[in-house]
Amino acid sequence: MREVAVVAFGQSVHVRDSAETSEVEMLMPVLHDVLAQTGLAARDIDFTCSGSCDYLAGRAFSFTMALDGVGAWPPVPESHVEMDGAWALYEAWVKILTGEADTALVYAYGKSSPGDLREVLTRQLDPYYVAPLWPDSVALAALQAQALIDAGLTDERALAGIAARSRTAAESNPHAQLRGAVPAGEPLVAPLRTGDCPPIGDGAAAVVLAAGDTARRLTARPAWIRGLDHRIEAHGLGVRDLTDSPSTRLAAERAGAFELPVDTAELHAPFTSQEVVLRRALGLDAADGTVRINPSGGALAANPVMATGLIRIGEAAARIHRGASDRALAHATSGPCLQQNLVAVLEGE
Question: In whole angstroms, what is the distance from residue 192 CA to residue 213 CA?
């Protein structure tokens, strides 16, 4: 297989409401940033792939307008996934592996502020048996959290500890939307409190991928993608064990995550309870504190839907770029209760 690395990562400052900024205006500084990091121009990129969701934008084919941020000239080979940008990165990675490209620009964006995000995300549900009941994303996460508590795998105090650790870690992240103390209060949807849930916000992210010697030329310490895989759970929530994530475990196994220890794990866990599920599936509970989990603050500090998973890969790569990590795991998810899961393993030279 060809060697493929993340050579640049950039993201916006994530905010609660970017009403005065269009998707293109939000994207352009991020795209300019990652290209400047590598010294590449738009004409040097062999393939461009994006991730976003028309339901968030409220209009069909909204991603075609976002291409204005890439530039109208020269024409670019381009693709789009109606998923988190982590899956766009997967497509670009495959494109480079096949030899059809040496460089790729991957970007993702999401504006959750214009609508009711909890209602919008119900469109991901099974349309026959679950969606007609209108359970929203927080209610479903609360069911998962309660299942974990009932199974004796966590408790509300432990969940509060995850929230506090994430907000504390975010204090050193200039792009985070939330940082500092977690507010106390009544449960939002029992047993989940406000601090157990992700913020609603807007943001964008981008990475540049490159192959082999091109990657070594573009950055001093490439973050090599040693393995990348994604899997999916059954669509019907009633046939799943919500306290476990077999698809995450399988994706990690196929990506080679269990072959050698990792020192960093960026987990796409929008709810504190989902971090419990992911740590168990990835064997991180057994790491006895030797793995730094979400040193960026994770999705509990900033959750621009459709970009959060790509940010996890970017944050893991950035730690390798600056020498803070040697072998990192990045995880992305989509759908209710960790339905779809992607795992990447990245290493320094």
Answer: 48
pLDDT tens, 172-222? 999 999 998 887 777 899 999 999 999 999 999 999 999 999 999 999 999
Q: How far apart are CA 304 and CA 199, in angstroms?
A: 9
Half-sphere exposure of 230 (CA within 13 A, CB side): 22
What does 291-314 look like in DSSP terms, one character per residue? SEE-TT-GGGT---TTTHHHHHHH
Under DSSP, the state recorded for 233 is -
- CA angle 198–165–160, rounded 5-degree value: 65
- For the stretch 134-139, contacts whose Cβ atoms lie closer than 8 Å and that sit 24 or more positions apart, written own/partner, are 137/336, 138/188, 138/189, 138/192, 138/197, 139/189
Integer Cα distance of 76 and 50 in angstroms: 12
Tally of CB atoms within 10 A around 292: 18
Q: For the purposes of burial, counting CB atoms within 10 Å of the CB of 60, is it exposed (0-12), middle (13-18) or buried (19 or more)?
A: exposed
Scan for tokens 């609660």, then name that residue.
16
Distance CA 266, CA 40 (A): 27
Going by C-alpha positions, the residue among 236, 310, 237, 222 that lies closest to residue 268 is 310
Q: Where are the alpha helices (DSSP H) in the chain?
A: 23-38, 54-57, 62-66, 85-97, 117-120, 137-150, 156-169, 212-218, 246-255, 272-281, 308-321
What would the two tokens of residue 325 be?
């990590």
Angle between helices 272-281 and 246-255 (to 10 degrees): 50
Render pLDDT for 273-328 as a digit per residue (tens, 0 to 9): 999 999 999 999 876 778 999 999 999 999 999 999 999 999 999 999 999 999 99
